[in-house]
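>> received
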Amino acid sequence: MFGSAIVYSGLVITTAGLILFIKPIERLRVESRSQALVIAGIGAILVGIGLTLPVRESRVKKVETRLDEFVPVWQFRERHTIRIAASPARVFEAIRNVRANEISLFNTLTWIRRGGRRAPESILNAGDSAPLLDVATRNGFIYLADEAPREVVVGTVVIAPAGGRSALTPEKFKTELAPGFALAGMNFLVAPDGPNASLVSTETRVFANSTAARARFARYWRVIYPGSALIRVMWLRAVRRRAMTPAAR
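>> returned
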């Protein structure tokens, strides 16, 4: 998150510098185009720093979830939680059935991510006719665990070395792979939180097993992180709406 904040701060400063290059504004103490270029250059430097910051590795201390089992070590992570006034069984059913059009901004952000291009069905072009987890697991993701009403975990390969892609299985997440891979796991975890209420979290972890893969994924992660985080927050809210709507299917 820190690296992403630096990247986007740099982009804002760079953009401001380019605007001021077109029209310097004296009341902002930018009186010449050369000053504006310095501002834009500082922004560009910040972007470069944000994209190349080193990453730290984290590890679970105790295996408590299926996600811990499959992705116990990671360099990239995000986690979001929500409380829902519905039973764990009802919430889990909602998680399994939420569609892309129920998640605010999902289709807009994934359209931006694929550059507005048409694409076959995938997590970036999910359509509205099938549950989003079903779309994901038909297109690059697999179920690592599906244990109603507690936890569902999906995983995918986000980076693979040349010639390294093969059939993805849960066992691959527990096997030492050749250098150059980055594996991602995401879960939804449901816990009772009082009478007819649940505490729900979703967590994403990515483990890259080489310096090159870590650097490559870090650049990608720091650019997409704000949109990724927003999607997951909206995803949880969509789960809440569906879980609390008796007629939802």
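>> The two ends are 35 Å apart (CA to CA).
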